[in-house]
């Protein structure tokens, strides 16, 4: 369900393999969830389309499949459904994935 390079069962890719790197971000252009912007750049034939902040299902927890909009995701240190911790470093990339 999460696209990318060498993606494991929880959505970790070749570029981000930490224990908390389990988030897939949805591209507004193709509608697919991607492990990271680098994977998208290397595999897709279009730029990563940033999602509106209120768009439902713009973030996917790779641990359980729970989907969130940006406000729910950005307010959580872990998945609200399964409690798997999210990487705090992901907020640095938010402008790549969302219309901030």
Automatic annotation (TrEMBL):
Q: Which domain of life is it from?
A: Bacteria
- According to the record, the signal peptide region is none
Q: Which residues form the CHY-type domain?
A: 6-84
InterPro entries on file: UCP017292 (IPR016694), Znf_CHY (IPR008913), Znf_CHY_sf (IPR037274)
Q: Which Pfam families match?
A: zf-CHY (PF05495)
Keyword match Zinc-finger: yes
Q: Which UniProt keywords apply?
A: Metal-binding, Zinc, Zinc-finger
The name this protein carries in UniProt is CHY zinc finger protein
The organism named in the record is Corynebacterium lemuris
